Automatic annotation (TrEMBL):
This is DNA mismatch repair proteins mutS family domain-containing protein. PANTHER family: DNA MISMATCH REPAIR PROTEIN MUTS FAMILY MEMBER, MUTS PROTEIN HOMOLOG 5. Residues 37-53 have a biased composition (Basic residues). It comes from Letharia columbiana. Residues 12-34 have a biased composition (Polar residues).
């Protein structure tokens, strides 16, 4: 609001005032109102603002249906028409043609779902084999992972949820065939698959789990054992009758199902339920209720997990046990939201947490998380990441690397910026908003710092060997980035925009706009002159406190004080019609009027501010259109910067934690020198490194890989491949069983080996002096027992499921970690199960995996249940024993050195003393241990009685002896006359 106020000395000044009215908010001369407060449509110079739509290149925006469009629930195409046409062509083979027509075509039905943060669940069914394949829920997968799954599965039918993100549906149906194409038809069969959009209720996790249980795939030949828990009145329970009925119950089926698939992959289990519902509906449509053939059509014979080619399989248990990722909730409950996006959680002490704070860009952090969630099995990808870190870690590249890291810290994700630009949101992208974090500032900063990164990369020695360096030099358009930066800097006035809280155009961009701004800036003088004219026409006593103000929303107004007695202004104009003031509104202290002079100003200058804003909107809109023409280039540059940022984060982490570069080989071997635990060494004052050597089974030859090499023309490549095949038969143990004391570091040793293998496949340097790691397709663990009250299973039952899953999924290239399996049940049962599991892995022959185990069941070794063989070796963590020490806790010193061989004691009593167990309890335990070692019976040794009980026992013994030596025939014949008989009877009584 601009006001002209008359002083007592007669001079008039323009002063900014603030209105207290609730009906309209005044705008000062210096700070204009935000643009969103003005919706002008009647000014002749105002042109309608263009609206930019968001659609993929090549898509017809008009082909998409409204969001409330009800999608058809079921579509079915008769694929047997191809066979029928073949019969018409080949009449001589009519019988075979009829049989072919009646048979079901081979179909691959794929069901996929994507939820918050790009988590992907997927399963598919092959009708030719009757097998249902499920994948582990893939975090941060997004459209890229869905595309990889689609390429891997090659589906004929695709099932999506109605709640799936529109980008997923657009990916599978880019022309909108499932909703109606631009030509007006809804024929989706131009796609290479049938697309089904199903209600989200069919993707329920509980419903999917029940449908899998009801398949009854494990009833035949199962042991006759039933598991019944209290209040387990489930309608799906049916324990059946006869042989094999034990596992027909829901609980038993669930246990067996958990041994084959990861039942905690909630999205994938929901997809399986939707797929089974689709199959059931197909049967109902095709066959009558009494037909026999439905039992053979779409029959589910097997259920199994699958992993994508080129990606290591890891499940949630492995990620949790190895602490690959570990979120920590915000300690302030007010900052914890109901969803993952608003939970306020942060990354805790985890392997990914060691590196993620080195990433400077949002897209770099996201890509780095994908690296750790999906370790690669592609040697080229792994070696490129390792080579990039090696080049940037060279001492002569410290300067360029620091410069690149600094520039990356100023870069935003252009994909998010482009989305905001299309929506017309120009305010800040951060929580506080503001022009400094808005899209124009982000674009200018991105263009400048991306060019800085490109120039700094040219100074990196060895950049010519890096794929990322070549990508930046070839795919980044320096001229396009510079042009965008110049356009934004030349048009947007960032200083004025920060003051006015809207996007302001610089002077010199438009002559018309500059003229309007000069006119608007002259309103101050106009208000002074108008105030003088009005003051001369009213009594002098009222002119002292008269203001002439301008509201961009209302126009020009006269303001005078409010008389509290009358509730009206001190002066309301003359009696003549032309001089009368019309009251517009009032506040607690002032009244605002319009007269003929105010209306004249409204007609000539009232829309000036809105016209200026509209003109600036047009100019900024034209700038946005020019920027959106370069959207593909900006997104590509942003993705490249994110990739560079993630690789630099790996390099900075390696330098910060003193990691070394591993060597990845096709040989099925793990050879580590001076290995450490990446997390444990950060929590202790000193860490003792240890070595590891394991060789897995050679496995069957891979004919596909051999044919690919043979088809090549490079003789050197074939020679290297042949050497690799010959070296697969390396001699060495495939299983290492750790024994020895508690608290000596066995579990840490097992985890450090798994972590080194895992990090090597991420393409990261590893905590070891030297490491040779063979390609490992899976890491399967039985380390941590993740108990929860939502699962009606004991801790030992959960352990059994983890081991069963490892036995089901393992291959010769897998790494299996088993830490103290069998400790949750009877010692004899646990020892037998542990021995059986170890024997199973050793008995796989050429398909035996690499196994690291730890156990305290020394009897399975002492009694020869595990026969010595070259593929089995033992190890223990070294301790020093000082039996002369007075205190028990001083008798054992843990050295944490790995030694080959066996240790026959666990020193559990020493561990108990170190952890504060009372000394009397420990002494009693040692006493019983000594008795057991001597071969004495513990029951007899523990049968101690008190002195009173001993005296009573002696009296009872004496009575019994007297009773046995008496001749009762003579006793009863002379009982009336014999005093001796009375004494005996008294003792007996």
């Amino acid at each position: 609001m601009i006001a002209a106020k008359r002083r007592r000395d007669g001079s008039i000044t323009a002063t900014p005032t603030v209105s207290q009215s609730n009906d309209a908010r005044a705008s000062s001369f210096v700070q204009s109102s935000p643009l969103r407060h003005y919706q002008r449509t009647k000014h002749p110079q105002q042109r309608p603002t263009k609206r930019v739509g968001l659609h993929l290149p090549g898509n017809n925006p008009g082909s998409s249906a409204p969001s409330f469009y009800v999608r058809p629930g079921y579509r079915h195409s008769s694929l047997s028409s191809v066979a029928a046409s073949a019969v018409d062509v080949a009449r001589e083979n009519e019988i075979e043609g009829e049989q072919e027509e009646d048979s079901d075509p081979d179909e691959v039905i794929m069901c996929v779902d994507m939820r918050e943060r790009g988590t992907v669940g997927c399963c598919y069914y092959e009708s030719s084999t009757g097998s249902l394949h499920l994948v582990e829920d893939i975090q941060c997968g997004g459209l890229e992972m869905i595309g990889t799954l689609k390429l891997h599965i090659q589906p004929t039918v695709v099932i999506l949820s109605m709640r799936v993100d529109e980008t997923v549906e657009r990916y599978f149906d880019p022309d909108g065939r499932s909703r109606g194409s631009a030509n007006g038809d809804s024929d989706q069969f131009s796609l290479p698959y049938v697309l089904e959009i199903r209600p989200s209720q069919e993707f329920s996790y509980d419903a999917g789990k029940n449908k899998l249980i009801n398949l009854r795939l494990f009833a035949d030949g199962s042991p006759e054992i039933s598991f019944i828990t209290p209040a387990d009145n489930d309608p799906y329970d049916d324990y059946g009758e006869g042989i094999g009925a034990g596992y027909t119950g829901r609980q038993g089926q669930l246990l067996r199902l958990s041994a084959s698939i990861d039942i905690e992959s909630r999205l994938t289990i929901g997809c399986a339920g939707a797929l089974l519902t689709y199959v059931t509906r197909r049967k109902a449509v095709k066959y009558l209720p009494n037909d026999v053939n439905p039992g053979n059509s779409f029959r589910i014979s097997t259920i199994e997990m699958f992993s994508l080619k080129g990606i290591m399989f890891v499940n949630a248990d492995t990620l949790a046990s190895l602490q690959i990722l570990q979120s920590e909730s915000n300690p302030n409950t007010h900052s914890q939201g109901p969803t993952n996006a608003s939970s306020g959680s942060k990354e805790g002490l985890s392997v990914y947490g060691l590196f993620h704070h080195f990433a400077r860009t949002p897209q770099g952090k996201y890509l780095l998380r994908q690296y750790f969630l999906r370790p690669s099995l592609d040697l080229n990808v792994i070696n490129q990441r390792l080579e990039t870190a090696s080049v940037f870690l060279r001492p002569d590249n410290n300067g360029p690397m620091n410069g690149i890291v600094k520039s990356l810290g100023q870069i935003k994700n252009m994909r998010t910026v482009m989305i905001h630009l299309r929506k017309g949101i120009s305010n800040g992208l951060s929580r506080g908003g503001g022009i400094k974090s808005g899209i124009w500032s982000s674009l200018r900063s991105f263009a400048f710092h991306t060019l800085q990164i490109r120039d700094a990369l040219a100074e990196v020695n060895g950049m010519e060997s890096l794929k990322i360096g070549t990508k930046i030099l070839q795919k980044l358009d320096p001229h396009g980035l510079a042009r965008i930066g110049r356009n934004v800097s030349g048009i947007v006035d960032f200083v004025a925009s920060a003051d006015m809280h809207r996007t302001v155009v610089k002077s010199g961009v438009s002559a018309e706009l500059d003229n309007m701004k000069r006119t608007y800036d002259g309103i101050e003088d106009l208000l002074n002159l108008t105030s003088q004219e009005i003051a001369a026409t009213i009594p002098a006593i009222f002119s002292l406190d008269l203001n002439v103000i301008f509201f961009p929303q209302i126009g020009f107004l006269i303001s005078i004080p409010l008389n509290p007695d009358t509730g009206r202004g001190d002066w309301e104009g003359g009696e003549i019609q032309d001089q009368h003031w019309d009251r517009i509104f009032s506040t607690a202290t002032r009244v605002y009027y319009k007269d003929f002079r105010m209306r004249e100003l409204d007609e000539t200058l009232g829309d000036m501010y809105a016209v200026i804003c509209d003109k600036e909107i047009e100019i900024i809109h034209e700038l946005g259109e020019r920027v959106l023409e370069q959207e593909a280039m900006l997104n590509q540059a942003s993705d490249i910067c994110g990739e560079l940022d993630s690789l630099l984060a790996l390099a900075q982490g390696a330098r910060s934690y003193k990691f070394s570069r591993p060597r990845i080989t096709r040989n099925n071997v793990i050879q580590i020198k001076g290995g450490r635990h990446a997390l444990q060494e950060l929590t202790v004052p000193a860490y003792v490194p240890n070595d590891t050597f394991l060789v897995g089974g050679p496995g069957p030859p891979d004919p596909t890989e051999f044919q690919e090499v043979q088809a090549g023309n490079d003789e050197a490549t074939r020679e290297v491949f042949q050497k690799t095949i010959d070296s697969d038969a390396l001699e060495g143990p495939s299983m290492l069983i750790m024994t020895g004391p508690n608290y000596s570091g066995k579990s840490v040793y097992l985890k450090q080996v798994a972590l080194i293998v895992y990090m090597a496949h991420v393409g990261c340097f590893v905590p070891a002096d030297r490491a040779i790691v063979g390609l490992t397709d899976k890491i399967l663990t039985r380390i941590a027992t993740r108990e929860t009250v939502s699962r009606s299973q004991s801790a030992f039952m959960i352990d059994l499921q983890q081991v069963a899953l490892a036995m089901t999924l393992t291959t010769h290239r897998s790494l299996v970690i088993i830490d103290e399996f069998g400790k949750g049940t009877d010692s004899s049962d646990g020892a037998g199960l542990a021995c059986g599991v170890f024997e199973h892995f050793l008995g796989l022959g050429i398909d035996r995996p690499k196994v690291l185990g730890a156990t305290h069941f020394h009897e399975i070794i002492e009694n020869g249940f595990l026969q010595p063989r070259p593929s089995l070796t033992y190890g223990y963590m070294e301790v020093r024993l000082d039996r002369e020490a007075k205190d028990l806790e001083d008798q054992v010193t843990y050295l944490y050195n790995f030694r080959a061989g066996r240790s026959n004691t666990s020193y559990g009593s020493c561990c108990a003393t170190l952890n504060g167990v009372d000394a009397t309890i420990v002494d009693r335990a040692n006493y019983l241990l000594d008795i057991s070692a001597k071969g004495e019976d513990l029951v007899i040794a523990c049968a101690k009685i008190s002195e009173k009980e001993e005296n009573e026992l002696k009296d009872a013994e004496e009575i019994a002896r007297l009773f046995l030596i008496q001749d009762f025939r003579s006793l009863f014949t002379s009982v009336n006359g014999s005093q001796e008989a009375r004494n005996i009877l008294a003792k007996l009584i």
